[in-house]
Amino acid sequence: MKSAAVVNFAPEKGSVEIREIDRPDIGPGDVLLEVANVGVCGSDLHQWTADHSWPVNYPVVLGHEFGGHIVETGADVAGWKEGDRVVSETAAIVSADNPMTRRGLYNLDPTRKGFGYGVDGAMTRFVRVPARILHHVPDDLPFESACLTEPCCVAYNAVVKNARIEPGDRVIVLGPGTIGILCAAVARLCGAEVAIVGLEQDRHRLAIAAQYGCEVIVGDAGPWA
Asked: Rounded distance, CA 222 to CA 174, Å?
């Protein structure tokens, strides 16, 4: 069975096109996921415009923010079954012997290969995913929202784990990109007073941040700070 896929096929600018690819084979520790929704990350765009800084295994299917239903499980997979609603982490291949992996920080393994650049990603119908990086999605959470789990985790790690924002804190976020807006939203959930700063051309993005209860600032944030 073949499916359409968004493929980054070469390092030159604009080397992305729709191609037909075969349904992936899975290994004993993998599942085959039928993709329901996939997000477009800034890194996908960087590979399209050829201004990225990471090695890419061409040709490769783009997409690492995704969720869907399991349609097949490998022989060694336990705890997952056909029909389960899931999202995936991004580190498809890591070294079990790397010091960072052994500390649980496998996202920092310099040899890791992620979806969309190291292995085929999810901008297609079916994607092979190691069962170890799957997470359940509640039945009442639409995949359109669930596929944003990965960037939400980036924001959570920055705001909660590292910055340790607490109720009553005053927080300024510089730049209303996807991660900036999500950081602002998470800071609000932590009980902080939040302002997000952008430029005149960012007003449509700032309007999104305002929906999360953030103060929006165009230009100088000095008076608010």
From this structure: 12
| Residue 41 belongs to domain with CATH number | 3.90.180.10
Alpha-helix runs per DSSP H in the chain: 42-49, 99-102, 143-146, 149-156, 178-189, 203-210
**pLDDT per position as a tens digit, 119-170:** 999 999 999 999 999 999 999 999 999 999 999 999 999 999 999 999 999 9
Is 18 contained in some domain?
yes
Q: Which domain holds residue 188?
A: 151-218
Token digits of residue 161: 């784990």
Average pLDDT, the chain: 97
Q: What is the DSSP letter of 160?
A: I
Do residues 219 and 225 lie in contact, with contact meaning Cβ atoms separated by under 8 Å? no
Say yes or no: 108 and 189 in one domain: no
Assigned token pair, 212: 């999360």
